[in-house]
Predict the structure.
Amino acid sequence: MDLPYLALVLLLTAIGLIMLLSASYASAYYNLDPSVDTGGNPYYYFMGQLKMAIPGIIIMILVSKFDYQRWRLLSVPAIIGSIFLLLLIFTPLGRTSNGARRWLDIGFSFQPSELVKVAVILFFAARLSKRKDQIKAPPKKWDRRTLRGRMGEFAENIGLLELVPYGLILLVILFLLYKQPHMSGMILVCSGAAAVLFASGIRLYWFVGGGSLVAAALVFLITQTEYMTARIQSWLDPLSDLQGDGYQLWQSQIAIGSGGLLGLGLGNSRQKYMFLPEEHNDFVFAIVCEELGLIGACLIIVLFALLIIRGYWLALHARDRFGSLLIVGINTQLAAQVILNIGVVTGALPTTGISLPFFSYGGTALVVQLAEVGIILAVSRQIVAPKAE
């Protein structure tokens, strides 16, 4: 097991719990979220997160001891099961909150999209890790006398045929996420899938073409979806609607600016007192900046950077291609989530609803993140230590 990686994860989780306690105190005490009954308990969100962090760490340890090669066999059931859970959202088991239908309520609530993100990486890594063997296999013989044969041979030569199953699976998942709607989930699923595809050696021009299609699709979705258009407009000019869509970003920037260099001190945030919405969730980093200042915020960013760099180092030294692709997918997804969240909170990017790993409130997300860490640690267990000279 890679101890530096484990230490960074545990440190970030501990700091995240402390900052969540500070950020959520007022919201829980005044019971500001109409969808949650905190009973006026100021520790409601903190205790809920702590109750999930403890089993999450246990799951992380158990997964780290699990032979990661077995995930190959589980990759197909995982992708099928996760798509099935996404479909269940559109049944009476689904729950709507803040205009989005993203949760399943089966005695407890969770977001299937959290499981989908992992399932896509597992499936892609399991299949693409065998890509070199498939390339070495004799090519399929096409009948050049027919149009179908010539088109099939051309598609195979340019690498299109091998992308078809991955593209179809992604389209199904992205469509189901779009119907929720869940833009942040779509972005993170694409980031993990693209990382695995790129690391497996898929031809570069497919990424250029795919990126162009994704950009065109995003423009279409933004122009055709009212709530996305409003978010873009409020991001470009938050002052134009301070009592509406621009309110959250403006309050976030006030929190960041109030922190200065050294911060107001742990627990001394002013914006968390009924000013900044989602201060314990997507915008918890704004409270970090306000209470710990620029120096504290930069230290946390450095910890995330070290975690991500260490993850890629482990990917480079993994025993086999499957382990390497697993780490690349999980690590890139984590990096994308951190970058996008901080970008949104600081106003560099439009609001997408992406949470900050290990910090934002959300039991399912935290458990899944720790389980993903367990997969990386499982791969690190089988890295051969360099011989001493």
Observations:
- The chain has a mean pLDDT of 85.
- The two ends are 23 Å apart (CA to CA).
- DSSP finds 14 helices and three strands in the chain.
- The CA atoms of residues 80 and 119 lie 9 Å apart.
